[in-house]
Amino acid sequence: MVKNFCKKAELSLEQQLAEAKQEVIDTKRRTEDYIHEAKIMLENAEARTKQMVWEKVQPHLIEVLGSEEPSPNLTEDQRFFHRRLIQIKNALEDLGIPH
User: Fold this and answer.
1) Which of 11, 64, 67, 78 could be disulfide-bonded to 85 (CB atoms 3.0-4.6 Å)?
2) Predicted local distance difference test score (pLDDT) of residue 5
3) Which of 51, 60, 66, 69 is nearest to 88 (CA)?
4) CA nearest 54: which of 2, 10, 96, 21?
5) Which strand (E) or helix (H) includes residue 2?
6) Prediction pTM value
7) What DSSP string runs through 3-65?
8) Rounded distance between C-alpha atoms, residue 34 and residue 40, angstroms
């Protein structure tokens, strides 16, 4: 009788161990799925943010989008601001913001 009980207990422990191992495997898979989904959401949010920034800034950079050379008719102040707009445009490009 004691032998029988020990065998049943041993089987029960083996079954519990197998179930625990499967639970660990399933949890790891779910975690990897959540991480993958979060990375995709982050990439999409980053792309949307960059696009929104570009859409807001683009009208203000319209003068420097076609050519980085200022018109010879610009005043010194206008040349300064033209150079500043080019620097802003370049900084946005460095951040990966499209144009």
Assistant:
1) 64
2) 60
3) 60
4) 96
5) helix 2-57
6) 0.64
7) HHHHHHHHHHHHHHHHHHHHHHHHHHHHHHHHHHHHHHHHHHHHHHHHHHHHHHHGGGGHHHH
8) 10
